[in-house]
Automatic annotation (TrEMBL):
GO molecular function, one term: hydrolase activity
Keyword Hydrolase: yes
Family: Belongs to the YjdM family.
Domain Protein YjdM N-terminal: 5-33
Boundaries of every Protein YjdM C-terminal domain copy: 48-117
Annotated protein name in UniProt: Phosphonoacetate hydrolase
Origin superkingdom: Bacteria
């Protein structure tokens, strides 16, 4: 146990260790960036990242990483659906992507359910 490293944010395990620029929890396998980078990010620009940590910008193409239910449609958006030309917004309830999904029309998505293509 290293006294200088924070516990795992997923399982609160105290046996975290450094692997390159990441911190790793041997108990659950969770990997994350150290807190100073996160604090600098919060203090600086409002950076919107996808589900795997890539920085998103206006006009990017993203892929939906998990199936999503859509009100008023018998089927939802399936995982793997590509969404082109996204626009980053400060939307309601954490929905920070404004886009047009083929077959569904204009909608807001959360950056946590997409991956940069």
């Amino acid at each position: 146990m290293n006294e200088n490293l924070p516990p795992c944010p997923e399982c609160a395990g105290v046996y975290t260790y450094e692997m390159g620029t990441l911190l790793v929890c041997p108990e659950c396998g969770h990997e994350w960036t150290p807190a100073p980078a996160e604090a600098a990010e919060e203090a600086g620009d409002n950076v919107i990242r996808d589900a795997v940590g890539n920085v998103l910008t206006d006009g990017d193409t993203v892929t939906v990483v998990k199936s999503l239910k859509v009100k008023g449609h018998p089927t939802g958006i399936k995982a793997g659906t590509k969404v082109r030309n996204i626009r980053l917004v400060d939307g309601p309830d954490g929905h920070d992507i404004d886009c047009k999904v083929d077959g569904f029309g204009q909608m807001h998505l959360k950056s946590s359910v997409v991956k940069k293509a």
